[in-house]
Amino acid sequence: MKKAAIIFTILLVLGIIITYQLRDKKERVEVINYVPYTVSTADVKEIIDTTGEVSALNRVEIKPSVSGRVDKLLVNEGDTVRKGQVLAYLSSSDRVAILDAVRSNPNENIKDWENTYKATPVISPMNGKIILRNVVEGQTISTNDILYALADELIVLASVDESDIGKIKNGQRAEITLDAYKDVSINGKVFQILEEGKNVSNVITYYVKIRPEKTPAFFKSLMTANIDIIVKEQKDAAVIPWDSFSEDEQGNTYVLVGDNMQQSKHIITTGILDGDNVEVTSGLSKGDTILVRKRRYNISMTKEETKGFLSMGPGKRKTGKDILNNGQNKKA
Asked: Which of the listed CATH numbers 3.40.50.2300, 2.30.30.100, 3.40.50.300, 2.40.420.20 matches domain 32-44+239-297?
């Protein structure tokens, strides 16, 4: 019974508070002021913000020419190699059988047999970096196994939405950051736009290849990259706030000039929209003054209501605590 009485009391008090709030609610009136703004200059740029990954420009998987056993590995992941360099030595299945038989006979000289039956070298097909070592010494392999993966160059592969791909051009500048190194910005350039798109959940995306100006040592294949592709940029452009211009029925872009009492339209041409600012290509210059609308809302009260409220002393004006206490007294 006590619990039910407490719940009833709480609901009753809440109902009283809501009733007072609804009764005292007044209509909001919009008030518009015009604040002067002086046209300034700034660097502006239009960007396409996307994601991608670090990828090999050309990735080569090195497989053995013979089945057998890995005798010796001469390079490891991260090593830079040149074309024609020996990467490993393998023993064919026949050589493995012969040498194992020789080792079981203490009277035989293993070195003579090793010189007679030479190990098979694995040769690098190009210059590049080892990005994968897939075997260990002593492992038995077949001709389908991958020994190494070799990348000639690490680039960034960006995924661009179909709606933005028309803005991308070769030579455009890009700013790259990696999730693993968020404080480091890497400059690059678009050098190839792939022709075939990819459908992912009914969204078509295209891949864009970006080459860093200088590939950092910490670049690793498949690292997640955040990319800003610079579509357009302008140095020292005349700029105004993005909310300071409008468009009339004829499609003309305009700003307001004048003062807080009287305003008139001034036609302009806009360019790059960059965050909070927009470039003005004609119609305004640095130092010109325009008007920016600033809206605020006042609570509508009659003159009598305002006068009566202001005439109340601090002890007579109702607070939330007074309303709550008043509701409890009425219940009592």
From this structure: 2.40.420.20
